[in-house]
Description:
It is an enzyme of class 4 (lyase). One of its GO terms (molecular function) is fructose-bisphosphate aldolase activity. It comes from Natrinema zhouii. By secondary structure, the protein is an alpha/beta fold. It has one domain (20-240, 247-259): TIM Barrel (Alpha-Beta Barrel). The protein has eleven helices and eight strands. It has helices at 22-25, 40-46, 59-65, 98-104, 120-136, 158-171, 184-193, 209-221, 231-234, 239-251, 256-259; strands spanning 15-19, 54-57, 75-78, 108-113, 141-145, 175-178, 198-202, 226-229.
Amino acid sequence: MKAFDETPISRNGKSLILAHDHGLEHGPTAFEGVEDRLDPETIFEMATHDAVTALAVQKGLAETYYPSYEDDVALLAKCNGTSSLWEGEPYSPRTWSVESAVEIGADAIGYTVYPGTNREPEMIEEFRAVQERARDHGLPVAMWSYPRGQAIKEHRRPEVIAYAARIGLELGADIAKVKYPRSPEALSHAVDAAGDVRVVLSGGSKTSDYEFLSTVEAAMDAGAGGLAVGRNVWQRENPERILDALEQVIFEGASADGAL
Ligand code: FBP
């Protein structure tokens, strides 16, 4: 059974997950120009916006800051991660057990799989264990499904993204988070390939308000279940303004023009 629709991380089958694991994945350079956001408190505060259905963070941030926000923010516990200092074969080790995440109050589990990496067998086996523990606790699972490795020449090719979304279905995720395959048609195919798994888009590097919202509008029209977005929200000088607009586009079916 797909638990997604009944969980606090969705609203009417759609979600806007604020992703903030970049301090680990990209390092402090991700905060250039918005140095105040080096303080995680600013991001937890941001996540109290009505539009945000969950905040995805690593264990360290959750342990320290989540207790003050547990009444206002749903927690998506990102249970593996890797730094950009690592230059070996793509791999994302476990950083957080499901049990510990549950103790802190997790409402959902997030986990990266890199289909195509030479370490794919380990990653799939580790995902299996996490997915089964999440099921024991009745928690939905979001898979960051990011094909990479020597075999992947172009990780945003339509067939690669459709495969990534399908892998979410095959391995028992409730949400497959994928990169935008550059066209609504390609995304629509990925949504079909994912069956009843919700396909949400990552936001990518920061673009203009209009460009970003137009892509979100097109993605929603193509059947996406929402966004799991980081930089395109919290790297903005005024994140509240883009969250207001995203709320309209994702949950109310507004156009980018209308929302702006
Ligand atoms: P963005 O919306 O900022 O692209 O974040 C989505 C995300 O999946 C983050 O959760 C993660 O930190 C980052 O992208 C990893 O991206 P990559 O592995 O491509 O550097």
